[in-house]
Amino acid sequence: MNLTNLLKIALQALNGNKFRGFLTMLGIIIGVAAVITMLAIGQGSKKSIQEQIATMGSNMINIRPGGEQFGGVRRSAGEMQTLKLEDFEAIEKEAPYISAASPEVSSSGQVIFGANNSPTSIYGVSPSYLDIRKYKVAQGEVFSDEDVRSSAKVCVIGQTVVDNLFTNNEDPVGQTIRFNKIPFKVIGVLESKGDNTMGMDQDDIILAPYSTIQKRILAITYIHSMAVSASSEDATEDAIAGIQTILRRQHKIGPNAEDDFNVRSQKELISMMSSTTDMMTVLLACIAGISLFVGGIGIMNIMYVSVTERTREIGLRMSIGAKGFDILMQFLIEAILLSVTGGIIGVILGIGSAFIVKNILAWPIDIEFYTVILSFLVCTITGIFFGWYPAKKAADLDPIEALRYE
Q1: Which residues of the chain have pLDDT under 50?
Q2: CA distance linking residue 60 with residue 70, whole number of Å
Q3: Are 346 and 398 in a shared domain?
Q4: What is the pLDDT of residues 336-347, one digit of tens each?
Q5: Residue 279: which domain range?
Q6: How far is CA 127 from the centre of its chain?
Q7: pLDDT value for 374
Q8: Do residues 159 and 192 make contact, with C-beta atoms less than 8 angstroms apart?
């Protein structure tokens, strides 16, 4: 018996039990749809995180004070005063593979304009900070190195600050705002960047010369941290090594002593976040894959029922010359048709569900072609795997006993 005839017989058998066939496919349909949807959400989240981190500067390096122990108690990095302006100047002049560097000091408080006020943060930085963090000025200009040297009371503000303070559509540029009673002239407005991967508003920010914040707000001589931009993403590790060498020399740290600073790159953050999202994606896919397994058991169950119902038919086919292999292929083709048809419907439903999630819940999705192919292959293999044993049982029936079966 050729393959075409076997296919026709399998289609006729399935056509005679449409509703039962649909219920059998339902597990496969739900499983494939769930796998595609879950993988799309997982990959979309990973891609979204990578893009958002890239907007912060994928080759950015952060330098912060390290915790230090006193009497067995480790002090937090925020309490440490190990980073000095001299460290920044040494890094800016000597560190290899860097394109820009900026010190950072910051403070939180109320910003006031007229009758409006809002809690926010002010960051003392150098002009190169905007290039490092990928900030762009939408209106006005950035403060200059001369403003840093003179500790000028000028600032650049984010869009959230504009929305909170200038409620009557005033032009922010040229206006004077007060932060903790210190007046600052607004000379520029930043382009909006939205929330970052941690859900923090990147537009709720004020940037001013670091010397101004040090002297007029914080009254300190040290710096809280440094932001450095590597010349390229590939050069990040070399840049970090150079920075560590310079800081250990500056701080006179011995060969076996612990660093009193921490150097971290965005590359590490991207790797960590990607690992987390990959793990969650695999977990979601495994949970969804359980539906495929349950669907496979459903196929095996229904094929057992089909073999039992058609025992006399099997005996009749064998008595007129059908071989055990023909019977095996007949029932195996039925199982594969069930799983493949369910897989096709599941793929369509999965892609549709992913776009529903994107449009209604506003979650990022990314449907990779390989996930569709993988899901389809898995459901085909499921049909073969779970359909084989019932088909083998049918092929091994004794024709005489099958014809006597009631």
Answers
A1: 69-78
A2: 31
A3: yes
A4: 888 888 888 888
A5: 3-52+272-404
A6: 31
A7: 79
A8: yes
d(CA 186, CA 166): 12
**Claim to verify: residue 87 and residue 215 sit in the same structural domain:** yes
Specify the pLDDT at position 184: 96
Q: Are residues 95 and 229 in the same domain?
A: yes
For residues 41 and 381, the answer to whether their CB atoms sit within 8 Å is no
Domain boundary residue among 259, 286, 305? 259
CA angle 296/297/303 to nearest 5° reads 90
Condensed to tens digits (0 to 9), the pLDDT of residues 237-285 reads 899 999 999 999 999 888 888 888 899 887 666 666 667 777 777 777 7
Q: What crossing angle do the helices spanning 18-55 and 369-395 adopt, rounded to 10°?
A: 150
- Sign of the CA dihedral 209, 213, 214, 216? positive
Q: pLDDT, tens digit, for every residue of 69-89? A: 444 444 444 455 789 999 999
CA pair distance 10, 12, nearest whole angstrom? 5
